[in-house]
Batch of 2 targets.
Target 1
Amino acid sequence: MPHQSGTVFLLNFTVPGTVKDKLTKEWVSKMRFVKKGAFITMMLLVAMVLSACNQPTPAAKNVETKKDVVLKIGGSGPLTGAAASYGTSVKQGAQVAVEEINTNGGVQGMKLELLFEDDAADPALAVSAYARLVDKGMHVSMGTTTSGAGMAMTEEVNKDGFLMVTPSASQKEITRFDNCFRVCFTDPDQGTYAADFIADHEVAKKVAVLYDKSSDYSTGIRDSFVEQAAQRGLEVVSEQAFTSQSNTDFAVQIQAIANSGAELVFLPIYYQEAAMILKQGSTLDVTFFGVDGMDGVITQLGAEYADLAEGVMLLTPFAADSTDEKTVHFVKLYQTAYQSTPDQFAADAYDAVYTITAAVKASGVKSLDEKDFNAKLVAAMTEITVEGVTGTMTWSKEGEPAKSATAVVIENGKYVAYKK
Amino acid sequence: MNRLWRKKRFFLGGLLALLLFVLMHSLIQSGLVSRHIQSLFVPVGLNMILALSLFLLVGMLGELSLGHAGFMSIGAYAGGLFSKVMMHVLPVWVRFPLALLVGALVAALLALLLSVPVFRLKGDYLAIVTLAFGEIVRSLVINLPFTGGAAGLKGIPKDTSFSFLYWIVVFTIWLTRWIYYSKIGLEWRAIRDNAIAAEACGIPVVSRKRAAFVFAASFAGIAGVLYSHHYSILTAEVFGFNRSIEVLVMVVLGGLESATATAVSAFFLTIAPEMLRFLNQYRMLIYSLMLIIVMIGRNTQWAKPKWFQQRRENA
Amino acid sequence: MASLAFVIAMINGINLGSIYALIALGYTMVYGIAKMLNFAHGDVIMAGALSIVVLVQQFHVHPVLSILISVILCVALGVLTEKIAYKPLRNSSSLSVLITAIGVSYLMQNLAQILFGSSLRSFPKVFHWPSMILGSVELKMDRVMTIAVTFLLMFLVLLFVYRTKIGLAMRAVAQDREAAMLMGVPMDRIISITFAIGAALAAVAGFFFGVAYGFVGPYSGSMPGIKAFTAAVFGGIGSIPGAILGGFLLGLAESMVKTFVSSELSDAIVFGLLIVVLLIKPTGLLGKEIRDKV
């Protein structure tokens, strides 16, 4: 419904010769132009001025009171949207580490602070989140939680030179720059390990794959798995896929797997979809095999359906019910803070923070505005060894962690080391 | 209207745009602009172009489109693939404009194809088809071999610069305004108000509708090319249904009457969630609440100023 | 062997379609009478399912009682959103209402995320329905129940709309709003009742959704909402039997394409089919021809 602005409406009632005939179309147009121009200019100026005020000067890194030196770690992840649970896990895992380190006196006399922004797993938002973190005075970056969002942002991090240690962005290209490192496995590696494991331990000969075609994590692992399986003589009898547009109903895929005679179903997916598949495919007589994303499936199923997880195998560097001291301690801290069991993402984030502090210690930097602060931290990464909850890690120059994963089977709702 | 004033206005507008450009550019160069604001230039510019292109369709022609992000996606992939292939063959100043052209053309072509079934449908049925189109594009992008699949298309040369984007945005605003007041703009609005009367006046409705669709799509395609050449990577999820809705909200909030208002609305709706970052996980909640409040406010009596109400009484 | 695969695909399709049909039913009711696309319908489903989860797991309410409470909660939610968000816009363009509905949808999703966390939650075992195995086909009882309830509800709704006074009023409003007002139909009450029924249907759909798929999260309602909207239009929006037909056909199409063509391209192909069907029948399968009166 076209509506007329007040002034144009008034024009219809212009009586020539009176004051009102000043309101010609031309005058109206001029006024509008001036108003628009003034408004736009004003808005832009305000925005710019506000931002200039917001700008923390680099010297703000430094300190008013000697005891308040704070090393700021900045990260981003999806805190809203469909992937929100993963971003939240990363944030919480990192927060647990930061608080633990601070209670133990900080690192090199400095306290840690975690700055975490929402990027909804979107590349553009990840870039603006990163920009905001830079404004807030971040010293070290934790990158992004998801790989898709991280690709554009890593270009920025490379330009700025910050040390970046991402807990969970698993695509190989994320660490293509010298200053980028990761805590978790890369997708291609996991697929290869899985295929090798199945072949080495003769778990099955006929294998089916069910993966998420819209996830780079899932397709990356699937690609290398299928390739390695062919080399190792495993027969891939069925390959089924789903996408994020249809990730609730798996009846068709499960039926196809049942028809194919597979003995093992490889699930390079996350625990949320895995739990759904376990529920919907409960009559399938197969062994389910997953990788690190599968961790957390027991919690996801809950007590009521825990029996569905029996016999599920996975290759995982982290196990929440592991009995080693470090893990027990971490799990306890996390549960006290958040009343839930940490998943792989939280564990990776916890280790990422500890990795950063190890790098800081090893680099020998004494203050935050030391010359070549970033370069020293980056250089230190290849020299450290971190004993984290996701394994003992060292890093190559390419940014990849060298660590191993344990193969476990779920028995009685717990992980049990696989014995053949 | 006075011809002289029109000419004057054009030059004054251009001058204003130039002044603003110089101002912004120098502020950026001097480092006075925060990193955060800098990172927002491209999203704001892109959203403005998208909103203006959708304004053509929804505001002027009056047709609801729920799959606009699909055209952006097509343009982005087409332009991105072209640039990747031509990366070492052509120099930037030839390759980039060509990439923009390729993106616009491919999007326009698909819009033409889509317009065949679309214009037999009315209202909400048309909306559904555009929605279906958006989802089809998204699904194809994940599955086709040359679009990079789930990991996305990487390594697109970063050709979009601030200056280039600025002037394209200015051009788009000017063009949209010009179209609005041109013959075809008037015809579109006539079709919107009463298609049968328009047809009776001799306006070829179907052909005009098709033109609007194609035009809107090509500009969305250009926005897509600009996107891909700034972020250097494309993933399928970016151009989903949510994106289409975001752009539609910008257009509707801009009032559907004026191109400049649409651009301003796009500006605010891009900036607002970013400025609300301090709210952390409550950000989207506040945003959606604000959206509802604004929508209700614009349409109910209590929001209108006194003089408007009096006018209603007199009429 | 191929025919068995076909039968299995059919059964899966009907299973899938039953959920879509149930959701589409609510969509089409609200559209037909209030003439608005309630974008937030899918999220009411999510609210219904999630409330059952929370009631059973956190408050240890008896499952059957929790279903009833969930229906009441959804009805309250539906009527409340109508009164607050849609009523002020009753005389504005449908586009404005659509945008507001989108705002409501986002609001519900984000509110759910803040209140109940972002991960998917396991849906509790409410009824212990056995599965029957016929040869290599598994007939799940819960799916049969879904289909039965969907048809039952459809009949009830049709009965209500065509045999009661309120139903008559609803039909009047659907046909010509101004005339109905002139005839003394209490517009506010009728529209509230419409939304209430729509929300109740959504709550039931939410329950069956949870049973079928096992997990619910804040964003679970989004995709089913879109698909059901598609189904409703497919069958002719505003037509109640059309919504059911559209839902089942969409489910069948999706299942067939997934089984015989490609499971990852299924969405593209099914949406493509939709466009083709709309080419042939522009107002949907059972939709009424809109005659333009000058």
Target 2
Amino acid sequence: MSRSSRAPQFDFDRIRAATSRKQFWSSIDELLDEQGLREWIEAEFPAPLSVHDKPRRRQFLKLIGASLLLGGLTRCGDRPANHALPYVIQPEEEVPGVPRYYATAVAFEGYAQPVVATTYSGRPIKLDGNPDHPVTRGTSDVFMQSAVLDLYDPERSKIPLRNGAPASWAQFETALSGLRESWRNRKGEGLRILTGATTSPTLIRQFRAMQEAYPNMRWSRCEAIGHAQQDEAMSAAFGRVLTPHYRLDQCDVVVSLDHDVLGAGPRQVAHAQAWGVRHGEVQSGLGRMRVHVAESVPSLTGTVASTRIPVDPSRIEALTHAMAAEFKVSGFARPDLQPGEGNWLDRALRELRNSAGHSLLMIGPYCDPHLQALAPAINAQLGNVGKTVWYSEPAHVPDATQPLAELTREIANGAIETVVFIGCNPVYTCPGPLGLANQLARVPNRIHAGLHADETAALCQWHLPLSHALESWSDARAVDGTATIMQPVIAPLYSSRSAHQIVDMLLGSGANAANAAVRETWEQSFGEDFDRKWIRSLHDGFVDNSGATAIAVTPNSLVPTQTSSGTNLEVVFRPDPCIWDGRFSNVAWLQELPKPLTKITWDNVIEISPALANEHSVSNGDVVEVSIDGRKIRGAAWVIPGQAPRTVALYFGYGRRGGAEIAIGAGYDAFSIRPNEAAWKATGSISRQRGHRLIATTQAHHRMDGFDFVREVSAKNPRLPTQQKAPTFYPDWNVEKSSEKNSPDHAWGMVIDLDLCVGCNACVSACNVENNVLVVGKDQVSRGREMLWLRVDRYFTGDVDNPRAYFQPVPCMHCEKAPCEMGCPVHATVHSPEGVNQMVYNRCIGTRTCSSYCPYKVRRFNWYDYRHFEAAEEAAKNPDVTVRSRGVMEKCTYCTQRIQAAHVQADKENRSFRRDEVVTACQQACPTRAIVFGDLKDEDSAVSKRRRSGRHYVLLEELGTRPRTTYLARWNDSPDEEK
Amino acid sequence: MSATATSEPILPTGQTYADVTDQLASIPLHFPARRRWIIALLCSSLLLGLLFVAITVLFASGVGIWGLNIPVNWAFAIHNYVWWLGIGHAGTLISALLLLLGRDWRNSLNRFAETMTLFAVVCAGLYPILHLGRPWFIYWMFPYPATMDVWPQFRSPLEWDIWAVLTYLIVSIVFWYIGLIPDLAAARDRARRRRWQIFFGILALGWRGSAIHWQRWHHAYRLLAALAVPLVVSVHSEVSLLFAVGTIPGWHSTIFPPYFVLGAAFSGFAVVSMIAIGIRALFHLQNLVTDQHLDILGKVLLATGLMTAYGYIFEVFNAAYSGEAHELQTLHDRFFGQYWWSYWGAVFFNFIVLQPLWFRSVRRSPWMLFTIATSVAIGMWLERYMILVTSLYRDFLVSSWGVYHATFWDWAIYAGTIGLFMAPFLLIIRLLPVISIFEEKEVLRREQQEQMANA
Amino acid sequence: MPDSDYYGLLAEFDTPERLVGAAERARGAGYRALDSFTPFPVYEIFPVLNLRDRRVLWLGLFGGIFGFLLALGLQLFTNFDYPINVGGRPLYALSAFMVVCFELTVLFAALTPAVGMLALNGLPRLNHPIFAARNFHRASRDRFFLCVLASDDKFDAKDTRRFLEDMEPISVELVEC
């Protein structure tokens, strides 16, 4: 039936009335007495028989899986997979089942994400931040966590392709030799090489060499997201490209104009960490950190900010100009602002000035360069430079802002003879108007090297499989400039080569050892005593003191520009928080990871403000069409409370046409209507279309008056009221007593500080990887069957146009009076002496009583045999954790395998546990240290300390389940809470 | 002596022992109404076939074929289990409780009421197995020395249920068969064809109606009846604990055991009435299942219905009186939420439609009683659904709220169990005396004595 | 004197009342080994024939006690044998155990008398001399039989037959072993 015909109408007076008083609610639908939801439900159970469909990928995986597994074991690219052999002579020090750890890095937008890889028998199964590295300090983000699955992706390209047909490297070499000849003759005229952004000293060195060999060739770096605009702004401000580094841990006041400093991206971990240092408990003398955000699209930063106003991009511009005017930046006048904006701005200014030297003004990297260029000047005036922000030479190689535009222009002029794409997919990420896809055919020689045979590969004569970062030697610099020498933790699974090897081939310097190029680079910089430094760097995972150094610079005066008048409808582009620009499209873990703010999986949506939804009478899932100067895309609308009224947000990464089997057909392709590479906003129009799309969210829920799942404290009353005891027949309880009964030694517990949580999902993906949590696909998620052991709940309170939002991670509570255990007839879920609520998979018969009785609904059930989905990913599985089969209940175990490992270690060394020795996966990943796990019997353990905090509270305490997982209330820093 | 018996005879006293015996024993021996019976059996066999298909698919791919999810991970399987079990209870109550109370009129109904119990319990008993994620491990719920030295968990309501239902099934079968023996003997002695003589001869165990046999039989039968009554109450109380033990709002209430038991009797008597009317029409037994019987059934139906209604009212009172936010939320959801139709549907089919039973003429009109009984069966089905789903789909944390919608396979298995109930029931009424012969003769004798006394 | 060639003499009556009357007279005449065969229990005749066997009821009682102890023992033992913390509930949660205790009590209290009844009655026994009697098939229909067993001390094929015929039964038949 056509749902569009009966689409619910938003009645916003009702919504405002409903949201006027403080109450929790979480999606627009719930404010409409579930009208919209009914639509969603109809979509949820279309035809009885369709219950059966499995994602298209399943068959494919079945076929590919076995061969991949063998391929993985042979650990040698060119040998046919069917020659897999077990160890004949077991290598020394290689004990099966005992993990080995290697420090290396994976690259993200050219920046090194320094990691420690856990490998079993030569199989990397988990990456975590390198604890010694100044940037990660052991924490991680979703991309780093999921990189393993990218490595084991069954759809990675495995051998070279010539016009789509299998070929060999030898054939490519012969083909190449002819090309090299002509390059040499024409001095590289007509040779264009495109790579992704890079900070790799080796690659840079190689390309310099190449430039010498072929002087007229051009090498450009194209990043769909990148920070080209920031570079432009910097060169506007300083005359040359510099990289700004924020030190949020030094800030008392942060003012952000559309800058999601905590959001996904290469710098997320670094920023979130620094932010976390400053948050949580009030540090003596420093008081609370204040964050004031004005943004067009709700973001993580906005969610945790003290004050936040939603303003359209054009108004951001106005605010920035006003800001500049206030700081007497020559030529800027304060435009007239609306009262809300004015008040916000004045408070921001006041606080910036009051804590000059400890304040920071940030202007978003997606704002126009001439706006961003103002930030340095203002921060300089505030004397923040060197304290809360410092500048360094860029680690990456800056580039013309629009390499693709340039390329297409040259192609049009027929100036290009050969184009080589290495590790980038411009045909997909190229803005539609440039029409690269149509132009490319006019280039005689087209070569593509990448992890996947993607859209670009499809248009090239040659496609070369690129080795994954974990398979190859390379190097790169982290966001702070510190260099990491990336060593392979597994031999190439397929007949693939690294970028360095391919560049060597282009140079004709012959096929060298895999690490030759990298060694060469560092031999130059290490000089004598190379071996020691080389070994050391490999071992540590980074090169000592290779970090960027602050340089003293003064911003130039700027030429003021006119504020663009607010247009009718402003379309902004954003990277997808889970699959970025589509480079992770094929990583199922990331596809099924709920987007932090919408909890949507497997899709991107067109995000519109409530006001706009009202105007066009669309509700969640309705198909809308966005058009920008004639180009159109259609997608499902999603109403985002707190989005700027006239703003439409489009997300990149979906609408894939190739190279990502599991993502094909999902969502829309925002690149196709992006005006140009530099464009992060455009003016366009939106119109309601017939039809409704099923969007799979992990959280679709309703008005919730008066409940206090997330509690808050404020400067006014910094302690939560102590729970007055309800009359009960149970004996009084305290940790010691209850756990004396259980165990003499330990009582495991977890405390999650809601003031530190920025909802970045790192914990969730870490949990997925550590515990072999299964991917079930969009269909199952839409039926409410996602498998996440740890979910991050997201609530709203207050005004629908600018609500206050909350994150609340919810793992198993490990109740001491667990209702679930009572219900199980076969002892399949029981309590460990140390107070862990255990799940015995192989005893479970699937009565699901435990889940019915669980007040927190943290248990997950294997409705089908979901293991089908992961035949290809066997190699990525954690051998210490059972892979659950059909008909079995599962849930968070406090990473019991880690607790046991610690026990074994302690017993071996004949000692008791060290303080906070056991670390759960979620805790380890969390960049803000929001999650703390440990022994409640140890008075001085981190978790015990938190339990004594005035902000400590228990979720649903009235039920008397006595959870071991508890929370610290979030601070409410908004001004109205203080008076 | 029972009031009903004195006021006016339940059975026409004109007939003799011989008439009653021959009439009833001849039903299996010279079966009337073959065509209608065959058609009925055919339909129920089709449903039975559907059940087998559905179960095959279920076992092949898993409970995912149902509409279940987190939070609603219990639905059709559990609530149909409760519904079927409830229906079963009426059979036992009629035949045991009324026997102890010396209500003669039950003698016309108890046989097929008990038969109904048997197959209702079989249908119910099937569900807990189908419901499991790994049904092939059902035996883990029984205590046996396992290799891993692990035993069942006796604090779990599910564990209680297994014992309760099995006990109930066994006791029902024994009670039914003990009561059947003398009639089997009667049928044996009426049988002329060899086949039948052997069939009944073996089943009758050589019963010959000797005085001492009768005495011991009498002791055993009475004792069983005395045990069956508390058993029924306990069984459905335990079923209710399946919910009441959970902390979920809308479940966690002490009203549940009586509420469930009464509801069970209510739905059961409804189905008994339907079957009574059906059989009486099928075999022309107006002289044995009289309007008087329908009248009484109608009264019982009305009474149990009103008691169940009290349960509804008290539930609302409970939530309101507790003032507990989540309880109130659940109450609100029941009234106006996603599944409002299940609540108001239950109220309508159970109580509104019930009201005409205040009138004697309605109670005595077979087709009206039949309609009302059907409506009650539907209403109680809705009630079970409501209690289960409206509590689960929105419990404490709003973030985990979800929705449930039954899929084709949910319905297929439910329809299938109706076949599983009907088919064997039809076979039984084809093969065995459908109404207790000797007990009818007892009633006849008592009434004839009274007539003479009055005359 | 007892006669081992015969099972007994069978007198057929058409109403329970006449059967009871006959039985009383037979007792009066000193017959002790008497039995009656009726289509439904005729309670008045039990005292007349001096039947007082309550063993079935005792069986029920013992069965119940056995069932209760079995269930309690089972649950206590399993928790003793596999002691583990389940939801922080007591290991020996008697209140929770009572449910299964009750069930097994009922189960055995029901099974023992049922089985006991058949056993004491010597059933199943598909062949019995009495079935040879010409009209006996009506014992399950509408006739009420009084039987003087051949094992009776006063039994005499001729005298006893004459004695029975005095009571004008519908028929009298000598049943052979």
